[in-house]
Amino acid sequence: MKRFESLNYLVSHLNLTLQQALDARLKRYELDIKLWPVLFTLWQEEGLSQTELSKRCDVANYTMTRLLDQLQVQGFVTRHQEADNRRAFQIYLTDSGKALEHDLIHEAEWVNEQFLELLTDTEQQELMRLLNKINKTC
């Protein structure tokens, strides 16, 4: 099999390139690509436990601890102790974290547009449909 026939190679290469492009845009906000999934997930649903947030972002719990520490120092998230479990915390965005949403979503959309511009609208929709179909089986 040649590398351009390998789904793993193609997806990995595209993922790396997409991450580098978005990371460059996030640097303007003193953020990096590692923090993107956490913020993106919390903009969709706050109050998740650290464990649930780790699962949704596909990172280890100890890694999530470091990411949340960084976001907390920057003033973008807070941790609220759960009433029934003193070791568990729910994660919420601060007003500053919420205020980033519009700008950072715009940056991510810009990156998406740059990569998808070679495709027609129909091809873009088909690509997204196929990627979602594959991801739902994983």
Top keywords for this entry?
single chain, 138 residues, alpha+beta, Arc Repressor Mutant, subunit A, three-stranded antiparallel beta sheet, 6 helices, 12% strand
TL;DR of this structure?
The model has no long low-confidence stretch (mean pLDDT 94). Helices cover 64% and strands 12% of the residues.
Topology (SSEs and partners):
Elements: H1 7-26, H2 36-44, E1 48-49, H3 50-57, H4 61-73, E2 77-82, E3 85-93, H5 95-116, H6 121-137
Task: Outline the structure in words.
The protein is of the alpha+beta class. It has one domain: Winged helix-like DNA-binding domain superfamily/Winged helix DNA-binding domain (Arc Repressor Mutant, subunit A), CATH 1.10.10.10. Helices cover 64% and strands 12% of the residues. It contains six helices and three strands, in the order H-H-E-H-H-E-E-H-H. It has a three-stranded antiparallel beta sheet with strand order 1-3-2. Strand 2 and strand 3 form a beta hairpin. The chain is globular, with a radius of gyration of 17 Å. The two termini are 23 Å apart. The mean pLDDT is 94.
